[in-house]
């Protein structure tokens, strides 16, 4: 079982570059991480057909906004209450799943890019202190099953999961308060403040999780303090080993 995780950390240049989902269907030079990665996977799948490998791929795309999970491929109507999605960890397979999330077969690259563009339209993005920064975390899960059985004599099955995580942009509360000004006092900036606190809490929890795993003293690992950390539990633990 192959498991892989790629993350982008906006506003954290020491870790990696800010890669935005806003460039889903632009030129090749400015495309974001997710469409580039998916295109590369399709190219590799096509190349491996010469070695008698056949692949089936399926994808899920979700958003975590204020600790609430939304299915970006099948969002509920605005008039409906939010659906409740639960994160489950399977101890025997070490796989992570999310309840009531639409899973789509990925057969053609152009269709995948169209789905990503559709999901982008539901993504919570706003003009913030970080230009074009997202106010939510997004996670694209790509599951691949490969089967080989041909004239080359090879037989086998390979299963892999690729998780692409675009983390929301982090902002300083003091600077945000100055930017919002009197709107916070009047209460009109309360939702924006809540967003920022939720985003910053998820980054803080990620740091606490890494610190607890690194202590090697059997400390409690606070995965459940953040939906992002809870979802990434197996991948974080794998990197910590």
From TrEMBL:
UniProt xrefs under SUPFAM superfamilies: P-loop containing nucleoside triphosphate hydrolases
All copies of domain Kinesin motor, residue ranges: 1-241
Top-rank lineage group of the source organism: Eukaryota
Annotated InterPro entries: Kinesin-like_fam, Kinesin_motor_dom, Kinesin_motor_dom_sf, P-loop_NTPase
Record-linked Gene3D superfamilies: Kinesin motor domain
Alphabetic keyword roster: ATP-binding, Microtubule, Motor protein, Nucleotide-binding, Signal
Gene Ontology molecular function: any one: microtubule binding
Residues spanning the signal sequence: 1-32
Membrane-traversing stretches: none
UniProt-listed GO biological process terms: microtubule-based movement
Family statement drawn from the similarity comment of this UniProt entry: Belongs to the TRAFAC class myosin-kinesin ATPase superfamily. Kinesin family.
Protein name (Swiss-Prot/TrEMBL): Kinesin motor domain-containing protein
Native source organism of the sequence: Mycena albidolilacea
